[in-house]
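Weekly modeling sync, notes
Attendees: S.R. (lead), two postdocs, one rotation student

Agenda item 3: backlog of single-chain predictions. S.R. asked that every request posted to the team notebook include the full sequence so nobody has to chase files. The rotation student volunteered to paste the first one in as an example of the format we agreed on. Action items at the bottom.

Example entry:
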Amino acid sequence: MAGRLSFTVGFLIVASVGLLHGACAATTYTVGDDLGWTVQPNSSYYEDWASQKTFQIGDSFVFNWTTGTHTATEVSTREEYDNCTKMGIILVDAGVTVTFNANGTHYFLCSEGTHCEQGQKMVIKIGDGIAPSFAAPSLAAAAALSALFFSTVAIFFLN
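Predicted structure, as returned to the notebook:
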Protein backbone atom coordinates (compact mmCIF):
# COMPACT_ATOMS: atom_id res chain seq x y z
CA MET A 1 0.00 0.00 0.00
CA ALA A 2 2.78 2.43 0.94
CA GLY A 3 4.56 1.60 -2.33
CA ARG A 4 1.50 2.43 -4.37
CA LEU A 5 0.96 5.67 -2.44
CA SER A 6 4.61 6.65 -2.92
CA PHE A 7 4.28 6.02 -6.65
CA THR A 8 1.10 8.12 -6.84
CA VAL A 9 2.64 11.02 -4.91
CA GLY A 10 5.82 10.82 -6.99
CA PHE A 11 3.78 10.86 -10.18
CA LEU A 12 1.83 13.93 -8.99
CA ILE A 13 5.07 15.77 -8.22
CA VAL A 14 6.57 14.98 -11.63
CA ALA A 15 3.32 15.92 -13.39
CA SER A 16 3.13 19.23 -11.50
CA VAL A 17 6.69 20.14 -12.41
CA GLY A 18 5.94 19.30 -16.05
CA LEU A 19 2.84 21.50 -16.05
CA LEU A 20 4.71 24.38 -14.43
CA HIS A 21 7.49 24.08 -16.98
CA GLY A 22 4.94 24.33 -19.80
CA ALA A 23 3.34 27.35 -18.13
CA CYS A 24 6.70 29.13 -18.17
CA ALA A 25 7.25 28.72 -21.92
CA ALA A 26 7.33 32.13 -23.59
CA THR A 27 6.82 32.89 -27.27
CA THR A 28 8.82 35.28 -29.44
CA TYR A 29 6.70 37.09 -32.01
CA THR A 30 8.00 38.96 -35.03
CA VAL A 31 5.64 41.91 -35.23
CA GLY A 32 3.75 41.66 -38.52
CA ASP A 33 5.18 38.17 -39.16
CA ASP A 34 6.97 38.02 -42.54
CA LEU A 35 5.92 41.56 -43.50
CA GLY A 36 7.60 43.05 -40.42
CA TRP A 37 7.08 46.52 -38.99
CA THR A 38 6.37 48.85 -41.91
CA VAL A 39 3.52 50.84 -43.45
CA GLN A 40 1.04 48.23 -44.71
CA PRO A 41 -1.49 48.68 -47.54
CA ASN A 42 -4.28 47.80 -45.09
CA SER A 43 -4.42 50.39 -42.27
CA SER A 44 -5.87 47.82 -39.84
CA TYR A 45 -3.12 45.24 -40.54
CA TYR A 46 -1.45 45.42 -37.11
CA GLU A 47 -4.75 45.56 -35.22
CA ASP A 48 -5.83 42.42 -37.10
CA TRP A 49 -2.44 40.76 -36.52
CA ALA A 50 -2.53 41.35 -32.76
CA SER A 51 -6.21 40.43 -32.38
CA GLN A 52 -5.52 36.94 -33.75
CA LYS A 53 -3.02 36.16 -30.99
CA THR A 54 -3.06 35.70 -27.24
CA PHE A 55 -0.02 37.27 -25.58
CA GLN A 56 1.21 36.08 -22.19
CA ILE A 57 3.65 37.29 -19.55
CA GLY A 58 7.20 36.62 -20.72
CA ASP A 59 6.41 36.83 -24.44
CA SER A 60 8.82 38.85 -26.58
CA PHE A 61 8.19 41.03 -29.60
CA VAL A 62 10.75 41.72 -32.33
CA PHE A 63 10.27 44.89 -34.36
CA ASN A 64 11.91 44.27 -37.76
CA TRP A 65 12.02 46.47 -40.82
CA THR A 66 14.19 46.15 -43.88
CA THR A 67 13.14 49.13 -45.95
CA GLY A 68 12.48 52.75 -45.10
CA THR A 69 12.96 54.66 -41.89
CA HIS A 70 10.81 53.54 -38.99
CA THR A 71 10.65 53.60 -35.21
CA ALA A 72 8.78 51.57 -32.65
CA THR A 73 7.57 54.16 -30.15
CA GLU A 74 5.75 53.10 -26.99
CA VAL A 75 3.24 55.70 -25.83
CA SER A 76 1.59 55.71 -22.42
CA THR A 77 -2.14 55.99 -23.04
CA ARG A 78 -4.87 54.98 -25.46
CA GLU A 79 -5.46 58.68 -26.16
CA GLU A 80 -1.82 59.17 -27.24
CA TYR A 81 -2.14 56.03 -29.38
CA ASP A 82 -5.40 57.15 -31.01
CA ASN A 83 -3.98 60.64 -31.70
CA CYS A 84 -0.63 59.27 -32.97
CA THR A 85 1.26 61.27 -30.35
CA LYS A 86 4.90 60.83 -31.29
CA MET A 87 6.49 61.18 -27.86
CA GLY A 88 7.39 58.19 -25.75
CA ILE A 89 10.02 55.48 -25.50
CA ILE A 90 11.48 55.33 -29.01
CA LEU A 91 13.21 52.24 -30.41
CA VAL A 92 15.12 53.30 -33.52
CA ASP A 93 17.00 50.14 -34.50
CA ALA A 94 15.37 47.31 -36.45
CA GLY A 95 15.50 43.95 -34.72
CA VAL A 96 14.91 45.31 -31.23
CA THR A 97 13.25 42.79 -28.92
CA VAL A 98 10.81 43.91 -26.22
CA THR A 99 9.74 41.48 -23.46
CA PHE A 100 6.83 42.07 -21.09
CA ASN A 101 6.97 40.58 -17.59
CA ALA A 102 3.56 41.64 -16.27
CA ASN A 103 -0.03 41.91 -17.44
CA GLY A 104 -0.80 45.19 -19.11
CA THR A 105 -1.75 47.00 -22.29
CA HIS A 106 1.06 48.54 -24.35
CA TYR A 107 0.66 50.98 -27.23
CA PHE A 108 3.21 51.10 -30.07
CA LEU A 109 3.36 53.30 -33.13
CA CYS A 110 5.82 54.48 -35.73
CA SER A 111 6.75 58.10 -35.07
CA GLU A 112 8.24 58.64 -38.53
CA GLY A 113 6.30 61.02 -40.79
CA THR A 114 2.65 59.99 -41.21
CA HIS A 115 3.29 56.27 -40.74
CA CYS A 116 1.12 56.10 -37.61
CA GLU A 117 -1.75 57.88 -39.33
CA GLN A 118 -1.44 55.32 -42.15
CA GLY A 119 -1.94 52.48 -39.66
CA GLN A 120 1.57 51.59 -38.49
CA LYS A 121 0.51 51.18 -34.88
CA MET A 122 -0.72 48.40 -32.64
CA VAL A 123 -1.91 47.51 -29.17
CA ILE A 124 -0.23 44.64 -27.34
CA LYS A 125 -2.41 43.24 -24.57
CA ILE A 126 -0.46 40.99 -22.20
CA GLY A 127 -2.60 38.51 -20.23
CA ASP A 128 -5.83 40.21 -19.21
CA GLY A 129 -4.40 43.60 -20.19
CA ILE A 130 -4.71 45.00 -16.68
CA ALA A 131 -1.45 46.02 -15.05
CA PRO A 132 -1.06 44.58 -11.54
CA SER A 133 -1.47 47.00 -8.65
CA PHE A 134 0.91 44.93 -6.56
CA ALA A 135 4.06 42.92 -7.20
CA ALA A 136 2.82 39.62 -8.61
CA PRO A 137 4.68 36.50 -7.44
CA SER A 138 7.08 35.07 -9.98
CA LEU A 139 6.58 31.69 -11.61
CA ALA A 140 9.71 30.47 -9.83
CA ALA A 141 8.09 31.29 -6.49
CA ALA A 142 4.92 29.48 -7.54
CA ALA A 143 6.97 26.43 -8.55
CA ALA A 144 8.80 26.44 -5.21
CA LEU A 145 5.52 26.68 -3.27
CA SER A 146 4.04 23.87 -5.35
CA ALA A 147 7.05 21.63 -4.70
CA LEU A 148 6.86 22.42 -0.98
CA PHE A 149 3.15 21.61 -0.90
CA PHE A 150 3.53 18.27 -2.67
CA SER A 151 6.52 17.32 -0.54
CA THR A 152 4.50 18.04 2.62
CA VAL A 153 1.61 15.95 1.30
CA ALA A 154 4.00 13.09 0.46
CA ILE A 155 5.60 13.16 3.92
CA PHE A 156 2.17 13.26 5.58
CA PHE A 157 0.88 10.22 3.71
CA LEU A 158 4.10 8.22 3.97
CA ASN A 159 4.27 8.50 7.77
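Discussion: group reviewed the output briefly. Helices lie at 2-23, 45-51, 78-82, 139-158.
Action items: rotation student to repeat for the remaining queue; S.R. to check formatting next week.
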